[in-house]
Design brief:
The strands form 2 sheets. The chain has a 4-stranded mixed β-sheet, with helices on one face. The protein has a 4-stranded mixed β-sheet with strand order 5-8-7-6. A hairpin with a 5-residue loop joins strand 7 and strand 8. Helix 4 packs antiparallel against helix 5. It is α/β, with parallel strands linked by helices. It starts with 6 loop residues before the first strand and ends with a helix. The chain has 2 domains: about 70 residues, 2,3-Dihydroxybiphenyl 1,2-Dioxygenase, domain 1, CATH 3.10.180; about 90 residues, Roll (2,3-Dihydroxybiphenyl 1,2-Dioxygenase, domain 1). The chain has 5 helices and 8 strands.
Length: about 160
């Protein structure tokens, strides 16, 4: 494993978010919870402060540190799916209980973390040499919220 990994700032729900991600994303787990000592602004002593998790094999650190900073769409996790069933499964799980749909395969979960739920077929299409097909698939993607593999393939093919 490398020396670089994401660090996410939460106002108060880092431990809940980490447990949720470990439940939804395969090969994931919460590996450590460090509680807050006295004197940490916006965090009660003894409350979860730093939460380390493994997200599909990648180390991630989450911190509860109050409302000074907020997560936004400038950072997102890119989740590659093999099938439409996987796209549907992850999309539904991640937007459940207060998440928000966005466009082009993007969503924000209930904890404020942005995700791109992308079928591998779209990545494949974008790398093909047919510029017109790529343009049609891109135009179709721009009209979607959750990505639809069959519709993307039809658009790429021009049918």
């Amino acid at each position: 494993m490398g020396i670089v990994h994401p660090h996410l700032w939460f106002a108060a729900d880092a431990e809940k978010a980490a447990a949720f991600y470990a439940e939804v994303i395969p090969n994931s787990s919460v590996s450590r919870v460090i509680t807050s000592p006295e004197g940490v602004p916006d965090v009660e002593p003894g409350a979860a402060f730093i939460v380390d998790l493994v997200l599909d094999g990648m180390p991630v650190t989450a911190i509860n540190a109050g409302p000074a900073f907020r997560l936004d769409e400038a950072f997102s996790f890119y989740l590659t799916c093999e099938t439409q069933d996987e796209v549907d499964h992850y999309w539904d799980a991640l937007v459940a209980d207060g998440g928000e749909h966005s466009q082009c395969g993007w969503l924000t979960d209930r904890f404020g973390v942005s995700w791109q739920v992308v079928p591998k077929q779209l990545d494949d299409m974008m790398g093909r040499p047919d510029a017109a097909g790529v343009a049609r698939a891109t135009a179709a993607m721009l009209r979607m919220s959750k990505l639809d593999i069959a519709e993307l393939e039809r658009a790429y093919a021009g049918t």
